[in-house]
Design brief:
9 helices; 244 residues; single chain; alpha+beta; seven-stranded mixed β-sheet
């Protein structure tokens, strides 16, 4: 898989519990079936017939292989020149001038919090990820500073800042946390809305992998839906509701 060579920690793609492998199989499967517009509507509520760009782990998915998306490269240069591990959105779906959807996919792991990332303080973290201007800031920084580090969803914060900087004119920016249905039901919607400015340029949605199953079923090819139904996690069905 040529694309894997451009993926940070590509060794994870062979693990049963790998959210990267799940992400690749589902989103590339949807792309090959021509179903990304329907997936985009499920994830964001934005219904457009145009085929969105598919960008996986900061690399644009093209017929010629992986290509680092120039927008990501520019924002990394602005914010992360001295950062060891660069921000790598799992999935970006973009229709220029319309919508920019950034998907943070979770399968066997939780959303990372600031206490796990080695920052001395929330102030240090926020200073590393500034907005271009106050009006363009997606984050409620005052509110975030009042939170304990164990509650600050730093990865989603980075996705929001990247989204605000990557968006083109007229683009609706949506950060989507893609989770298993069981996690969402047992733990509730991640408390990320409180991190965002009410009138800011980025909105947040939580969705389930299972939400994409009807799209996969409608593809006229049962390979993708069969993959989702049969997908395992720790030797048990990953999405038991799909087997009903």
């Amino acid at each position: 898989m040529r694309f894997a060579r451009a993926k940070t920690e590509s060794w994870r793609l062979g693990n049963e519990a790998s959210e990267d492998a799940l992400t690749w199989n589902v989103f590339v499967g949807l792309a090959r079936l021509g179903l990304l517009p329907e997936a985009l509507k499920i994830l964001t509520g934005v219904g457009l017939s145009q085929e969105p760009q598919l960008i996986l782990w900061a690399n644009e998915f093209t017929s010629n292989g992986p290509r680092l998306w120039p927008g990501i490269q520019e924002v990394r240069h602005e914010l992360e020149e001295t950062t060891t591990i660069l921000t790598e959105p799992d999935v970006i779906l973009r229709i220029p001038g319309k919508v920019l959807a950034i998907v943070e996919a979770k399968f066997s792991s939780r959303n990372s919090t600031l206490d796990k990332k080695g920052y001395d303080s929330p102030e240090e973290f926020l200073a590393n990820y500034p907005a271009r201007c106050v009006e363009d800031d997606p984050l409620d920084r005052e509110r975030i500073l009042s939170m304990p580090s164990t509650k600050i969803l730093e990865q989603l914060c980075r996705m929001a800042v990247f989204g605000s900087r990557l968006r083109g004119r007229g683009e609706d920016v949506v950060v989507i946390n893609l989770l298993g249905q069981q996690d969402l039901l047992s733990k509730g919607v991640p408390e990320f809305q409180s991190h965002l400015r009410r009138e800011g340029p980025v909105r947040f949605e939580a969705r389930c992998w299972e939400d994409l199953a009807p799209v996969a079923r409608a593809g006229g090819n049962d390979t993708l839906i069969r993959y989702m139904i049969e997908k395992s996690l720790l030797l048990a069905p990953a999405f038991p509701g799909l087997r009903a």
